Model the fold of this input.
Amino acid sequence: MAIIVNIDVMMAKRKMKLQDLAKEIGITQANLSILKTNKAKAVRFSTLEDICRVLKCQPGDILEYVEDDQD
Done:
């Protein structure tokens, strides 16, 4: 099971830079970068809510489930 974070796609659609989004939602650029590059182990619902509010999107626009290729 893999959860893919597509924040970069939504940021591009909204023409928003990482530092601008980080400032708007009140987290560090480093923490947002970890989330953006799929290196995060978890995300707080409050952070997800803030991201969706600023980017004017739904959680499903940001998070995607991709099944692993395991036999």
The helical segments are 7-13, 18-25, 29-36, 45-55, 59-62. Strands lie at 2-5, 63-66. The radius of gyration is 12 Å.
